Amino acid sequence: MTAGVWGTAADGQTVTGRVTTADGLILSEGICTARDGRFLLHLPPMEQATSCTLTVTCGDETRTIGVEQEAAVPEPAAAGLRM
User: Fold this and answer.
1) Is the Cβ–Cβ distance between 62 and 55 less than 8 Å?
2) Whole-model pTM above 0.85?
3) How far is the C-alpha of 77 from the C-alpha of 52, rounded, in Å?
4) What does the buried/exposed string (b/e) look like for 20-42 if buried means 16 or more CB atoms within 10 Å of the residue's CB?
5) Which residue, among 48, 49, 44, 37, has the nearest Cα to 18 in the 3D structure?
6) d(Cα 18, Cα 57) in Å, to the nearest integer?
7) Residues ≥6 apart with Cβ < 8 Å to 79
8) pLDDT tens by residue, 13-71
9) How far apart, in whole angstroms, are the C-alpha atoms of residue 63 and residue 83?
10) Structure letter (DSSP) for residue 35
11) Position 76 pLDDT exceeds 70
């Protein structure tokens, strides 16, 4: 299953998301386009890891969320962001 990251953004804006480890290894990434002022970014399942970072970018704005505990996305998961 994929992990969903959702939020608000201007129509037509491209939203990208990436989960990386502390040493920069990309675990999962996705891209989508905002419609009707909202976006839903799907991130594919990833390997289990610790000290991960979720980075979401929309236009000139970037949000980064750190996860220090053990994290994996084989189960349904979601996070909401306002861009």
Assistant:
1) yes
2) no
3) 15
4) bbeeeeebbebebebeeeebebe
5) 44
6) 9
7) 3, 4, 5, 6, 54, 65
8) 999 999 999 899 999 999 999 999 999 999 998 888 878 899 999 999 999 988 765 44
9) 8
10) B
11) no
